[in-house]
Specification:
The chain is built from 5 helices and 10 strands, in the order H-E-E-H-H-H-E-E-E-E-E-H-E-E-E. By secondary structure, it is of the alpha+beta class.
């Protein structure tokens, strides 16, 4: 319907049209809440009486619905495409992405993500492990320093002297004896050994048995060839068929061996002559020697 006060505005517009030089009046804020855009000057617009609307330019005052006029300045077009799927020329970036803030926020988020991934990897892999090269070696394999034995050297027992070894040649005989321990304490002498008796138990009464005798540190003196009745110049020995062989302290057999650093053993027959080994060389390598441990 007609806007209150419109008749007065139309009257003024008619007078301005008759004069032909006065500018057209602007629409105020009395009829609508928003301020209307300025209108072009009114030319020779006809004057309408007090009962009808007055045309201003091409617009009719009072015919526009309330709130249809734009408020404030017209939005400037956005260059380029839309943001987050908006059509080109429409929408605008969020305030936190404008200027220098957007790249800075994105960079900070990437740094936080990298730090989180690194923390997870370290927690899964164990953070207390020594990194490669921390020990001062380029390859990561620790090498024994000069003067220190290697792991392989310490894991293998040292090789015993030849006279103490229970060799395959000794054990190839039908009967043999190998000393594995010899100790002297306040009670006496104890000798442990392994043996093979050829299926017949040792017997000092007419059967095969063991001759024990003392020797120097090399086990070569006195020679084994004189430790039986087969020799013209005989050495000193004692006989046994028990395992272990034990002689009480102070006994003649004990004193015979206790004065030497080693004790040796050989196989003898029922006549107390040494049994030759099976090498065919006339030797008597049917046993070994062993150092005496004094407790």
């Amino acid at each position: 319907g007609p806007v209150p006060g419109a008749t007065g505005v139309a009257g003024v517009a008619g007078v301005a049209g008759a004069a032909g030089s006065a500018p057209a009046p602007t629409v105020g804020t009395a009829s609508v809440r928003a301020t209307a855009s300025p209108v072009r000057p009114v030319g020779a617009a006809p004057v309408v009486g007090p009962t009808g609307p007055t045309p201003v330019g091409s617009a009719t005052v009072g015919s526009a619905p309330v709130g249809s006029a734009p408020v404030g300045p017209a939005p400037r077009p956005v260059r380029g495409g839309g943001v987050y799927g908006a059509p080109p020329g429409g929408g605008s970036k969020p305030a936190w992405l404008t200027g220098w803030r957007g790249p800075a926020i994105i960079a900070a988020a990437i740094v936080v993500m990298i730090g989180a991934v690194t923390a997870v990897v370290l927690s899964l892999g164990g953070g207390d492990k020594t990194p490669p090269g921390a020990l001062g070696t380029e390859t990561g394999d620790a090498q024994p320093s000069e003067g220190q034995p290697s792991e392989q050297a310490t894991s293998e027992p040292p090789q015993r002297p030849a006279d103490e070894q229970c060799t395959p040649e000794i054990m190839s005989n039908p009967r043999w004896v190998c000393i594995t321990g010899a100790t002297i304490d306040n009670n006496g002498l104890t000798i442990t050994y392994t043996f093979a008796d050829g299926g017949t138990p040792f017997n000092i009464n007419g059967g095969f048995h063991v001759h024990f005798y003392g020797a120097d540190a090399s086990g070569a003196t006195p020679p084994d060839s004189i430790m039986g009745t087969h020799a013209n110049q005989r050495g000193q020995w004692y006989i046994d068929d028990q395992q272990p062989s034990y002689r009480p302290a102070g006994s003649p057999d004990f004193n015979l061996v206790a004065q030497h650093p080693k004790v040796c053993a050989r196989i003898a027959n029922g006549n107390h002559g040494l049994v030759p080994d099976n090498s065919g060389n006339g030797t008597y390598k049917t046993g070994n020697c062993w150092p005496i441990t004094r407790l």
